[in-house]
Structures are given as structure tokens and as C-alpha cells.
Amino acid sequence: LIAETKPRPLVTETAETARPPGDFPALVLPANAQAAVLRFVELIRRYHEEAVRSPSLRDGDSPDGIAGYTLVDLVRRLIADIGYEAEIKRIYNEPEEQQARWQTVEEVVNALGAYERDAQQPALGDFIDEVALGQQEMGSDKEKQLARNAVALMTLHSAKGLEFPHVYMVGLEEGILPHHRSLKSDGDDVDEERRLCYVGITRAQERLTLSLSLTRMKWGKPRDSIPSRFLYEIMGQAEKAPGAKRPGRVAK
Prior knowledge:
This protein is mainly alpha-helical. It has helices spanning 8-17, 31-53, 71-81, 84-91, 95-118, 124-132, 140-147, 180-183, 187-201, 229-234, and strands at residues 164-169, 204-210, 215-218, 221-224. Strands 1-2 form a two-stranded parallel sheet. Strands 3-4 form a two-stranded antiparallel ribbon. Helix 3 (71-81) packs antiparallel against helix 5. The longest helix is centred in the middle third of the chain and has 24 residues, at 95-118. The chain is elongated and about 70 Å long.
């Protein structure tokens, strides 16, 4: 964080005097903000120099003495240096939102790794250009693998809008789907879990397989699982859900 001050005073001063913003930073920023700007400029300068040098170090050593220095290594260190994950946690209070935001950062790094593996002379600027132009799609490796009939592992949220010939939904158990957090709140949360279940079911084009574990290890001991209420609803036996039947104890 450099400053909380809005940029309007600098824009106004620039327009009225026809001077570039760099001519009068002291007129706008307090001393501590100026120091933060200088640190930021130094950070960018240092990482820019490393980004320019990094392709030649791919088979050598990094400035930190780490073998196999790559652009991915560089970006991961930059993310750590600026405290990006901590800033996400500071801005967003909900753990789910924090996780979603952080996963987006991870996907960018994954895309950079895919680009670096395929490019003859990888450069961070070229990667950014490709992303901006839409030539580098996030998860392109996944698309190539799916074209070869590979298995795609994903959450119900990320499956929205996609379809597959064969879909396997696992963990149809109380506490997993619906999630245990939704069971502790009002019915709206369970309804949202039901909609997610519907999303998963409707992803299948040809065949759908629903499964659950008979037992799960909890605190070092096997515990019987309770079938998801959604399974009973699918079979038209909603009045028997949840937990009226336990796997392994159903009468034959």
C-alpha cells in the first residue's frame, strides 16, 4: 500500500500546469508515501533486471543460488515479496473468497509455467502480451489433455458451463454434499448446495455415476458415512433423508 490519497490532486495539477506528474511528486505525496514509492520503484527495477536475465539462467543458478531458475520462480518470489496472499486475507473476510482469489493467482502462475515450457525463448513481457491478446488461455494444457480423453478433476463451482460425456460425482454424503457448514445454518445454504448438486448432475452428456464412501477415517477411527439427502431426493425418497439409512447397515 503506497497511499490512501485519491489521484485527483495530481491529475488536476498536471492538467493545469501541463507538467508531467513526475515533476512534482512532493506536491501530492507525503514523506512516508514518497518513501513507499521509492521502495516500489526499486522493487520493480530489481525484478525487471531479473526477468530480462532469467531465460539465460534456466539451466543455471538463480541469484539466490537455486538451480533451475525460471520465470515461474521469479513470479512466485515477487508474489511472496509483496505479501499478496496476506493482502488478500486482509481485504476479504470470508475464507471461501480468500481461497477463490488465491486460486486465481495460482492459475496465472500455472499458465506462465505452461507458456515457459512451450516457448523457445520465454519472456515475461511476451507472456503478458499473449494473455492480453487472448492467445494464451488459462488451462490450455487441460484442454489438450481432455482432447486425449484425460480425466478432469474439478469442483462443482468450476464445472459450471462445461459438459462431459462421462461424469463421476464422489462424496455424496452428509457433511460433504451438502457441506457441513450449510447444515449448521438456515435452509438457504442447503438449497444452494442442492443447486450445486444439480449443476454436477447436468454436466453429464451420456453417463453419470454418483458415489459415496461407506466409511471415512475421523480422528483415527473409521466412521460410518451418512448418504446425502440429495441421493434420497433423486430416488423420490426425500422423506427418508437424511441419515435414515447408513451404508453397510441396509437390510438385504
